[in-house]
Amino acid sequence: MPKSNRSFRPLLLASMLASSVLLSGTTFARDVVVRTETGNVKVTEFATGLDTPWSIAFLPDGRMLVTERPGRMRVVGTDGSLSAPIAGVPAVHARGQGGLLDVVPSPSFAQDGLIVFSYAEPTQRGARTAVARARLDLERLELREVQRIFAQNEDPSGNQHFGSRLVFAADGTLFVTLGDRGGARERAQALDSHIGKVVRIALDGSVPPDNPFVGRAGVLPEIWSYGHRNIQGAALHPQTGELWTHEHGPQGGDEINRALPGLNYGWPEVTYGREYVTGRKIGQGSSRDDVEPPLLQWTPSIAPSGMSFYTGERFPQWKGNVLVGALRYQLVARLVLDGKEVRHEERLLAELGRRIRDVRQGPDGYVWVVDESEGRILRLEPAQ
Q: Which residues form a coiled coil (predicted)?
């Protein structure tokens, strides 16, 4: 069936009311209780004092890593304490949206201490998204054997749209999301460019032989999917193992997609968004036969960032839901799925008025969010 005939159900807005704060002081209290459709949720201020935090990643012993965009990485203790900055982080281009970005432990971290992180790497022209691996020495708080395993092959000027989420697949390969860098958006359709792509690499930076474009002349073999604007949320579907992503649209047209191998996601030729300032239509419309349509699109834009599938037991009514942070709308969107269709959205934490940069499920089953506005890590748990 051609893609133009595929059904695309818009988001069912059965309830678009944000959660209500039941208990707080004049400022954010250490514990705040909010009302949701599935019961009251306690929001606890777990760690504070961070400078523009971007990502958190849990370690096997319950501690977590946190990146700060200016170029620092720290360890957060199980009591919420912050370590000194970890030594050995490469220099970063900490301008605009650039800096130190995502971090994830490798699947073999418990044995070898390997982590992978992404950053805006300074170049003579400006910067490009790069990925490095390193051994984390938790006792000495330093990175050892730092090795860059990937860098975009173009470094356009400007300080926007670095993308930069990292996700390990079940087979140990690594997905890297790459933005269009703002002014280079036409290159998102070019298959000899890393601009506006998802790439899939091995932990040593090599190309997996089953990538969709391997062996095709003139195409970068690490490309997994293309036609993306700025993906800042990515996670594996817990049942299918597929990579799901979300990306920023311009004025409207934020998208959630299944990033499937070899497919074109349209940007900038096919989009629901419009130009800033003028409001003019971008490209050729919102659909085309050779372009994979989004599972969901937000207009107006919520500016999504951070994404997680909830699979824990603490919130049984959230099981199988997608949790998406939002910067502009300052909330967490809880998306209820029916297969690959989004049936319902509930908007959480909007009254707190904080830019949510990352959202993760912890090994304890609680939901953890990064509050970029105040430099904090918050924990969500059912209220007693």
A: none
Q: Write the burial class of residue 215 (CB in 10 Å: 0-12 exposed, 13-18 middle, 19+ buried).
A: exposed
DSSP code of residue 17: P
Nearest by Cα to 113 from 97, 87, 129, 135: 135
β-pair partners for 163: none
Which sequence positions are flagged as catalytic?
161
Burial class (CB in 10 A: 0-12, 13-18, 19+), 90: middle
Residue 251: strand, helix, or coil? strand
Give the 3-state secondary structure of residue 316.
helix
Domain 3-11+34-348 has CATH 2.120.10.30: yes
pLDDT digits (tens, 9 = 90+) for 195-234: 999 999 999 999 999 999 999 999 999 999 999 999 999 9
For tokens 């690499």, name the residue: 201
Amino acid residing at 244: W
The DSSP output letter for 83 is: P
Q: Name beta bridge partners: 42.
A: 33, 381
Question: Which residues in 272-288 are b (16+ Cβ under 10 Å) and which e?
Answer: bbbeeeeeeebeeebeb
What's the longest Cα–Cα distance across the chain? 62
Q: How many helical (H) and strand (E) elements, i.e. helices and strands, does the chain have?
A: 1, 25
pLDDT tens for 154-209 read 999 999 999 999 999 999 999 999 999 999 999 999 999 999 999 999 999 999 99
Q: Provide the whole-model pTM.
A: 0.93
- Kindly state the DSSP code that residue 197 receives in the 8-state scheme: E
**How many Cβ atoms are within 10 Å of 135's Cβ, its own excluded?**
17
CA nearest neighbour of 281 among 292, 273, 289, 293: 273
Tokens representing residue 267 in the block: 């940007």
